[in-house]
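$ run holo --ligand "manganese (II) ion" --emit tokens
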Amino acid sequence: MGQDLRSYLDTVKRRKSDEFQVVSRAIDPAYEITAFVVKLEKERRQRPVVLFESVKGTKFPVLTNLHASRSRLAIALSCAPDAMLQTYLRAMERPVAPRVITRAPVHEVVLRGAEVDLYALPQIVHHQGDAGPYITAAISFAKDPAAETWNCAYNRLMIQSRDTTSIHLTLGKHLWEFQQIAEQRGEALQLGLVIGVHPAIALGALAIGSIDEDERAIMGALLGEPLELVKCQTSDVLVPAHAEMVLECEILPGKRTAEGPFGEFTGYSLGERQREVVKVKAITHRRDAMFQDITVAHLDHMLLSTIPMEANLYRAVRAMVPSVRAVRVPAPFTCYVSIEQRLVGQAKNAIMAVFGADLYMKRVVVVDHDVDVFDDRQVTWALATRCQPDRDIAVVTHARGSDLDPSAKEDGYTAKWGVDATAKPSLAAYTPRHRVPPEVWERLRLEDFLPGS
Ligand SMILES: Cc1cc2nc3c(=O)[nH]c(=O)nc-3n(C[C@H](O)[C@H](O)[C@H](O)COP(=O)(O)O)c2cc1C
Ligand SMILES: [Mn+2]
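-- output --
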């Protein structure tokens, strides 16, 4: 199996040709790319991969909306759409170590020093009010300056000059931790920002877990073969050899710059903040590289991030409540869990497991296994009919959450709430749900009462 974006696109073209849309007419990267993708979804219910061949102001074509369909993501993991959670869990449990190679397509073109020009890249502005062009599909590859621990994550970048960007590091997350260590030593943190990869690599980058878990090995397990890495031209950072493009960078110690406003994944445009500064030392790319974009807060972004989140949350709840049935992340900071509750108190344990496993989680609802967490109406029904708020809501105060939650007191400092919407003391002992007698249900045939239909 190929581990580059191109071989995946070939598979999509072969297996789902109507889900690959080429646009030849020139498009303005300011707002038009986002408008095109969102309109296609809203007005025509279509969410193909889109390749804009001609983008104003740049020679690079732009690929977007790659991850906006569960069935396309399932193709990337060589499994059925409903097997993605289990496939992802297996990859977390059986990681495959990466392999370093020396010749790489991503080094076909190497631009260093004065040749670096971020303004030659597509200057994509996503939403009204954004402070400027952002790079939204870059995956960071970095190493703990004090250890052999590697980390990968998506980190959006605002283009600030020919060779600098700002970067958003969620407070308390792994790259932020590396940056703290480097800054305390007065060092720049070396990193590769990788653009244009196979979706298995994208999904692997979003694995949530301990800082010691190596996302690169989860990528390998998802690909079914070791991820091939190559050393950067200007540092010892290892990056995927088959990527479309790499920005070889360092985060400057002690420096901050104004970033934003930016339309965030939460659906809100947040104001300006002081963020870390990234110096771009080199840009390497394939000779005919595609640039990749992700439309923030839309399907391309949300589907991609929820699959790894749900796998990790399922793993965490299962460690506490073995009879967990399903986990869903239906909205930012929100998790629904269904459990087959065998002992009183397990719903509360499930809530604690979720809060312990994912920084972003702020509201958890736990329901019994007869409730389908993928149906919002059923969850709402359980909340209304199995829950007493004075008894069943657990509030955790003064905790850490997302620094992009506009309701938080200050960046990321937040309360959290878990709601036990399971029947008490147990589903078996609860007042029964009504139903038609089973023998009548079996016997009655609609056609007997609707002749001619
Ligand atoms: C398209 C996209 C953009 C993202 N942008 C950021 C970002 O700018 N900063 C950030 O901290 N996390 C961002 N995230 C979320 C992180 O990549 C995600 O939480 C990741 O798992 C963090 O890695 P870690 O658990 O190794 O710290 C983004 C995710 C996606 C899918
Ligand atoms: Mn990590």
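-- notes --
DSSP finds 13 helices and 23 strands in the chain.
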